[in-house]
Amino acid sequence: MERTERLGRYTLLLTEDCFPLGGDSLALGRFATVRRGWKVCDLGCGSGVLGLLLLEREESLSLTGVERSPAAADVARQTFARNGLDARVVTGDLRDRRLFPANAFDLVISNPPWFPTGAGKSGGPARSEEGCTLMELCAAAGYLTRPGGRFALVHRPERLPDLFAALRENGLEPKRMALLQHSLSTPPSAALVEAVRQGRPGLEVLPVQLQEGPQSGAGPQA
């Protein structure tokens, strides 16, 4: 079944082949740093939601999405076409370094799977790292991001030690972070993190944000 969601001036197409739109993606789309004319790569782009959110903020971005699922990749292409956007969607494995040259992007962004395989909290294949581990995701981002470029993602708070270790191992220095909560009386449900390739140490912790909509944990079909 096909349905649509309005995201500012754009319309997002969703089908059963795509992970539902969630508050974590909305928050990440607002959080990531963007600059005029930047080349952006969305790892595990799904329906193309992060691309639409970033283009709503800065329409001059050059956007490329990578998606393993052919069905989801086709939905993303339809989404961009319906909105008259010249965005590229590549069907492939984000770990495949033959897809793009090194240092090709100013910003890499991702809403990845949150739970290690066998953790007992996967919530299904779309949330499990079975197809792409956190270390593999950070390795891909480190390869694709130019020196001084940025990698922004959303993840689980309890995975922050693993995330910071994986980022640093791949030349990405955590520079900005904000926690997401559903309400002031509940613990944080997600963490927004932005790292800089070859950046200097020093992490800016932003105020806690209240999360809109359902918690999705959407991730790349790596």
Quick recap of the structure?
This protein is an alpha/beta fold. 23% of the residues lie in helices and 29% in strands. The two termini are 23 Å apart.
End-to-end Cα distance: 23 Å
Helical content band: 10-25%
Q: What is the general shape?
A: globular
Q: Quick check: average pLDDT?
A: 91
Largest sheet: 9 strands, mixed
**Which H/E pattern describes the elements?**
EEHEHEHEEHEHEEEE
Total count of strands? 11
Number of helices: 5
Unreliable sequence segments: 214-222
Strand portion: 25-35%
Question: What oligomeric state is this?
Answer: single chain
**Which structural class fits the helix and strand makeup?**
alpha/beta
How many whole angstroms does the radius of gyration measure?
16 Å
Give your account of this protein's structure:
- With 222 residues, the protein is α/β, with parallel strands linked by helices.
- Helix 1 packs parallel to helix 2 and helix 4 runs parallel beside helix 5.
Search tags:
9-stranded mixed sheet, disordered C terminus, 29% strand, alpha/beta, 11 strands, 222 residues, 23% helix
Helices and strands in order:
Layout: E1 3-7, E2 10-14, H1 23-31, E3 39-43, H2 49-57, E4 62-67, H3 70-82, E5 88-91, E6 105-110, H4 134-144, E7 145-155, H5 160-169, E8 172-181, E9 190-197, E10 204-205, E11 209-210
Parallel strand pairs: 3-4, 3-6, 4-5, 6-7, 8-10, 8-11
Antiparallel strand pairs: 1-2, 7-9, 8-9
Helix pairs in contact: 1-2, 4-5
